[in-house]
Design brief:
The chain has about 500 residues and is α/β, with parallel strands linked by helices. About 20% of the residues lie in helices and about 20% in strands. The N terminus and C terminus are likely disordered.
Amino acid sequence: MLQPLHQTAGGGGLSETVACLRWSFLLGLAAALLWIPGAAGAALNCHKTCICASNIVSCSKINLTSVPTALPPYTVVLDLSYNDIARLRAEWTPDKLPKLHNLLLSHNDLHFLSSEAFLNVRQLRYLDLSSNKLRHLEEFIFEPLGHLQVLLLYNNHISQIDRSAFNGVSSLQKLYLSQNQVSRFPLELVTDKSRLEKLILLDVSSNKIKVLPTADLQALPAWIKNGLYFHNNPLVCSCDLYSLLAHWYIRKLNSALDFKEDYRCFLPAPAPPKTQVGVFELSSDYMNCSTFKETDEEAFLEQMLILGCDTKHKDMSKTWLMPGNVVVTAGSNQSAKVLRDGSLQISQVRPEDSGNYTCFAVSEAHNETLYVVLKVHNFTMNAGGETLNTAYTTLVGCLASVVLVLIYLYLTPCRCFCCPNRGKKGGEDSIHSSMLSVTPTHEDPMLKAELNRHVAFIDSKDLQGQNGKLNPNGDDEDLDEEAGMLGKGRRKKSVAESISSVFSDTPMVV
């Protein structure tokens, strides 16, 4: 009886022992799993899993599936890159990290960001979410990050960006969105100054953007255009696109200068489908776009004019030189003054304001010099029609004058020299009569014989008391043999030709 009882007791004790061992093994396995680095909610272990150096915590490349807990509050840099974290929930850090400035989450499997994920890390300056699997940026997702300056979102699968996704990120300076699936250029990020007024770099290269708002982009200040990158997109070729990039290239803006060969576009019909060419080749080989040239400024009299100093960098100190290297100084009585934004205002344009203007822009790290050539028209802006009427009136007056001259030459009555038996007497050639003849109209023979004299001209260089002018009509041997005699002198050979001049200042009466 005892043996069966013993056996029974022994059998029951063995089964209980096995059960206890089984539960102990399971509990031990569960406890061990809690300390595996990849386990969810694992506590930070700076001795075995992560590397802690002062205020830097690096947990990179240890196959984490969630963020470790119990992070020290003095952490400034937290590196969680190259892990397997798929979701960033609101409770990933239950305690506030008031000194955390850099959060690195690149090369994970992130496809979900909680709308409250950044509530406890409001002091972030640098956030790296690149090389993940994000697809959609929801509204107000980054709103708590009012101090964020750099946001890296490149190499994801982002195809949708809510227009209010970046609301509240007022300090953001650099936004990297390249290598995604974005199909629309986020113009509101660079035109709405109340939202991202400090943004100096926006990279949307290598996306799926086909059409750009070229007019709006051209109107932006140069310091913003200098940091806009949209190369390696399937852009549609157009002359507006060429003019935009050609202007940027002439201004030596980094976005066009550094990636000139990477700006390509697809030719529209009737070109073969998917024919891709370089944007800078559109001016000659393909679409025959007009070569872009910088245009000079033009103004009218009495116009108020503002010349912009459009620099590639923001917040630079600007000094202007007027034509003649005259420095524009504050408080002087000059017609020009420098405005708060660095542009030059000319209150009333005058003709002497034409010429070359120079803007010197200086900062701690950069120097720029811009030249503006101003051409001033010599009439006011509203006087264009009056100028046209004046020109038309002048033309009509000139034509009328020409008509009157022709009438005078060809339609006047016949003069005496063309009438028969008039102008000649006794076969005498009328050419020997001077146009300055003082023959009176009366018929008194005595006075007629006395006053009917002719004006002749002789060389004066051999005569005493003359003005010494040279004879233009003959040589010395053609002079009269008796040059000093006034009565019977023989004329020169060319006397008939010489007497035709009526404006000689040495006449001689014979």
